[in-house]
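Please go through the protein record below and explain what the tokens say about the fold. Record follows.
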Amino acid sequence: MQLFYLADCQNVTHFDEDESKHIVRVLRKEVGDTLHLTDGKGYLYTAIITDAHPKKCQFRIQERSYTPPRPFAIHLAIAPTKNIDRIEWMLEKAVEMGIEEITFLNTAHSERKQINLERLEKVAISAAKQSLKMYVPVLHEMISYKQFLKQCTADQKWIAHLEEGERLPLHKAIRPQQKYCILIGPEGDFAPEEIDMAKEAGFGAVTLGESRLRTETAGLAACFTLNLMNEMGEK
């Protein structure tokens, strides 16, 4: 199955020019052919093409099905790297594994202070289509670290850092089927005062293993661990 994305599948009856050209010119779809669409919010739509125009491919919805959200949710709060390609790579892989929400943090040691949220959303949508995900994660604009700590309401909250002190391995800290949030710092790690602020805000200190990981690798390792431990808990 090939999956297409439209944010408002029920009220839109055609694709934009780029997607129309891809459907008609590249995939060679014709009138009467079936397409599968998602709105990124759990719904899968089956549609048929009513006008195979390369600039405005029109369709009609035939049926709709719903995939309920997972019994757990992952919120990754991460300081984006100076090289944004590395974060785009991480985002793509995290979507493939499954992730509900990502917030980009402006920390004391952050090398990047701005992001192109529109481009990152396109990366997330593309990854969801490729991996046949019915959900596209919510991406948030960059926010100050202090402000994020105040507004995080996850059931389980952690900060992954490299400072000395008591840190529980993430896989041992997880309680299954919860709403999780994990903080991942920049290449220079979180500042000591930021670690203290997180602990005061109720974030537990965790480690992702003995290896020193790059930011994007740490984000992906956290996402993988949370997914894996919940999947194992279901069996």
Observations:
- The radius of gyration is 20 Å.
- The CA atoms of residues 70 and 192 lie 35 Å apart.
- The mean pLDDT is 95.
- The chain is about 35% helix and 25% strand.
